[in-house]
Amino acid sequence: MKAAIITAAGQSPIYGDFNEPAPREGMELISVAASALSQFSKSRSSGSHYISEGVFPSVAGADGVGRTAVGRRVYFALPEAPYGALAEKSLVCSEFCVAIPDAMDDVTAAAIANPGMSAWAALVERARLQPGETVLVNGATGSAGRLAVQLAKHLGAGKVIATGRDEVKLEKLLSSGADTVIPFHLASNDPNGAKQYEQELMAEFRHGIDMVIDYLWGESARTIIVAIAKSVEDARPIRFVHVGGASREDNVQIPGAALRSSAIQLMGSGAKSVPFPKLLDAIAKVFVVAEKARLGIATRTVPLAAIEEAWDAPGNPRVVVTIP
């Protein structure tokens, strides 16, 4: 079968032939239709993600959309190594499949599953969002951040604050669920950027904030934590949920005083911090509410044969590989 094959850890995939998986009891043999090139999928495939299996050579792709041997259309996750989603066939545990509503097409399902899951899990499973609460989404201009804004509003948030670097994209979020947007510029050649961001955050936080859904980490996350410590009233708990590290700044120097002088609750959201069945359930729920919540995600489709060029393409719009 044709597949995107990774020959060694840290390598990009090559397009070639790979042995087809054989059907087995308890496993679904999937005829794959589409698979999104999410950061999670790429890092797990190349061996750098903390739940990578480290089997090489192997087929890339951590999740996708396809049909089972009996024709059921499903989203599937974590194929059994060495089989991945970026191939004509894949082998997946039956319990790792989620039914797709008839109204949702393959490309949309493949593209929305991972970012939708991360947003739902952070808001519902970790932050325990309650109706009327105020939510700040840090890094709201990415695919997952935008969905988090939309889902927070759909799930009953009283106010949604969206932050990010791209002012044009932030302004568009005002028609997609955001009540307030705060752009920031934290480049090293702009020493006043962090201070200005902190002051704008503090002005908002004085009105009350309940949780932060963070897709960036790095300097922007540190600035938010400091702003919370300076502006939120005594002992008011703030849930800070770290979901992604799009800033590529793994280490953050958080002043101890910021933790001692606030009731901030730091937590992560993702594989292992949320039980895997709950993550699959989050995807199922996102599929169900997608139309009513007007969830949308920009996509660009490429054929499997173009995987070598598409692998390192920018993630916005989200690249979805179609098969065949």
CATH superfamily of the largest domain: Medium-chain alcohol dehydrogenases, catalytic domain
Show unreliable segments. Answer: none
In the CATH hierarchy, what is the architecture of the largest domain at level 2?
A: Alpha-Beta Complex
| CATH topology term of the largest domain | Quinone Oxidoreductase, Chain A, domain 1
How many helical stretches? Answer: 9
**From the alpha-carbon coordinates, what is the Rg to the nearest angstrom?**
20 Å
Structural class: alpha/beta
| The number of domains | 2
Helix percent reads 25-40%
For the biggest sheet, the summary is:
7 strands, mixed
Strand content is: 15-25%
The dominant shape is: elongated
The beta-strand count equals: 16
Distance between the termini: 11 Å
Average pLDDT reading = 94
CATH class of the largest domain: Alpha Beta
The H-and-E topology, N to C, reads as: EEEHEEEEEHEHEHEHEHEHEHEHE
Please characterize this protein's 3D structure:
With 324 residues, the protein is of the alpha/beta class. It has two domains: 2-113 and 283-322, Alpha-Beta Complex (Quinone Oxidoreductase, Chain A, domain 1); 128-268, Rossmann fold (3-Layer(aba) Sandwich), CATH 3.40.50.720. The protein contains nine helices and 16 strands. Strands 3, 5, 6, 7, 8, 15 and 16 form a seven-stranded mixed beta sheet that branches. A six-stranded parallel beta sheet has the order 11-10-9-12-13-14, with helices on both faces. Strands 2-1-4 form a three-stranded antiparallel beta sheet, with no helix packed on it. Strand 12 (211-214), helix 6 and strand 13 (237-242) form a beta-alpha-beta unit. Helix 2 (106-126) packs across helix 8 (276-289) and helix 5 crosses helix 6 (218-231). It is elongated, with a radius of gyration of 20 Å. The termini are close together.
